[in-house]
Write a structure and sequence with these properties.
The protein has about 170 residues and is an alpha+beta fold. A four-stranded antiparallel beta sheet has the order 1-2-3-4.
Length: about 170
């Protein structure tokens, strides 16, 4: 993990530690329902102010909390068109496997690349510290994954171009 990334991830870790104090809370509108309030948004008094932790304009994390759920939306750094394409493909790849990730949402919040939804049921069955570790580790590794994919694409492109140009020599 780069030294410049450490304070950013530390701020996210401490914010998530505070935001993940969740409890079971039945719906006040529909009897016998327990929906994540951050998604349903039926009662404004149950929602906390969204918190945005930004490393820069292109890389940020929005944490939206409520009484029984927290939504974490991540905007991944995209410096050029290649990274935009790779992030889009990678996000779609993960969204198709949302059931395996349990806390991953299929569709991210508008303006962000990936979103997680953690409810009180998740904090009951999983350890809070491990959930926070997963999100922070994911955010720390996503940049290196995108960079590695970009290097791989450039390497394959260079090999294809040199092979193609050999026929003209």
């Amino acid at each position: 993990m780069a030294q410049t990334l450490a304070p950013y991830l530390k701020a996210i870790r401490s914010t998530l530690d505070v935001a993940l104090c969740l409890r079971n809370f039945a719906s006040q509108v529909v009897e016998r329902h327990n929906k994540p309030e951050v998604e349903a948004a039926m009662n404004k008094e149950l929602l906390l102010q969204p918190m945005v932790v930004a490393r820069n304009e292109k890389e940020k994390c929005m944490i939206e909390g409520s009484i029984n759920s927290v939504r974490i939306s991540i905007k991944i750094k995209q410096a050029d068109q290649m990274e935009e394409l790779l992030v889009d493909k990678f996000s779609r790849f993960l969204a198709q496997r949302a059931e395996e990730f349990v806390i991953l949402r299929r569709t991210p919040v508008k303006g962000y690349d990936i979103s997680f939804l953690i409810t009180n049921f998740h904090t009951d069955t999983m350890l809070k510290a491990k959930l926070i570790d997963f999100v922070v580790h994911f955010m720390g590794e996503i940049d290196s994954e995108i960079s590695a994919m970009k290097i791989g694409v450039n390497t394959r492109g260079r090999v294809v171009a040199s092979t193609f140009l050999k026929q003209f020599l």
